[in-house]
Structure prediction request, 139 residues.
Amino acid sequence: MGCTESSSKEVTIQPTEENTTTVDEKNSKMLKTPKETTYDYGTVAKTIEKAFPDAVTSADLVSKVKQTLVGSGYDDKTTLVATSLCCDEVNREFESDLVKAYSQNFSMGGLAGFAFGGVTSFGAMAHHIPDGGNCLVVY
Prediction:
């Protein structure tokens, strides 16, 4: 499913077979059409804040990761980000923010945190680490 955030703070998810079912309107602020599903970003954010009061945004998490790793030589020019996220992962925003911070990503694909490619994928990823550089593996 494709997910985009518009400037009006709504998140639109493109239709797939999985997201075309009817939703109980009493329990959701979701607006549904046969073509797409639109979530009010403000409502989603408030729900997350209520359920997870210590949650941080993807951008804040990337900033904290970068601040923590910079002292160990991880910088944006010599660090390869290697991700193994599920294809419908809710963390795509986090992955995008990591790529913005480090500029390189080797996507190994995954399901529930397990790399699809296994040993072969890790071997291929290792050949993409810059000379004298580092690799940040995210799963």
